[in-house]
Amino acid sequence: MSVVELLKEKIRQEGRVISDDVLKVDSFLNHQIDPVLMLKVGEEFARRFAGSAITKVLTVEASGIAVALMTGLSLKVPVVFAKKKQPSTMDGETYCGRVRSFTKEEVIDIVVAGSYLGPEDRVLIIDDFLASGEAARGLLKIITQAGATLVGVGTVIEKVFQTGGEALRDQGIRVESLVQIGSLAGGQIEFLN
Amino acid sequence: MSVVELLKEKIRQEGRVISDDVLKVDSFLNHQIDPVLMLKVGEEFARRFAGSAITKVLTVEASGIAVALMTGLSLKVPVVFAKKKQPSTMDGETYCGRVRSFTKEEVIDIVVAGSYLGPEDRVLIIDDFLASGEAARGLLKIITQAGATLVGVGTVIEKVFQTGGEALRDQGIRVESLVQIGSLAGGQIEFLN
Hints:
The structure is a homodimer of 193-residue chains. With 193 residues, chain A is α/β, with parallel strands linked by helices.
């Protein structure tokens, strides 16, 4: 079974529709994590972005780390995760973006140390969900500040009805989502792929 | 070269002593991550805890996730990461612990959804650092609430002079640290192993 079909089966069996906007899949993706499935997901992103000469995988803590790590393992490149609060041990130059969190109803600043992204980098953004596109936009701002090049965005589940993916594609950004969901209305998960 | 020697070499080359208490290794462990090295670390923990019939790997977001994920991959068991703030999508029963963060100078509550730990679970706690032992104690509280069994604690770097490891071992808990540091005084990293 392909990783896309595996993911859809998991979502059908374990996903819970919390509202018309929120799908909870924390049994395997972002609270409890299925590492073997995550490795397959990472391998699939590596396959899709093969030949793009990626030098770094970039994500934001905490939900994106597992998927990003397995993608970095498959591509054999380092993974950088943007932090949500500047720790006291982070000194020197930093790059910052601002993200509105959909499920936590807050605005947060995300930050990457200047040492870990630079003009020579070709960056793949990886995250668990793509909804409004807020996280990707924050990370894109960080990539721009670093003078690096964005190769594309990979996401496990795209909630297409929240139009973040559409906005990114309209900017000419390559977006690869393994599972596309068209609607969660009435508690029903409508897959588009 | 063994994974312990690889880690020590990385720490010698890239580690920065920020103060007598703080060693910064965010070039490969907890901001930028080296996924291939993390896989080796995960395999080493799986080797050391082989035969312990572990059913879950438990860590706390965000720095512990990479190491925990690779340990879960090697052991072929799910990974659960405690969240630092209860998201609006987390309903139902939860287990909670309280952790004082050393580098961020704050007290935070960590939480695990009730569905992902239970009396049948044999749990391995994994984290990047073991210093005062605050995170491990918070996670241990969660394991106790769930009625689960703690198998042991695995950490990449133990700052032995901060005595968290000693306190855990005094409770009869098995602690495996890949690299043990005896002192950071005067900007010098003193390895004990």
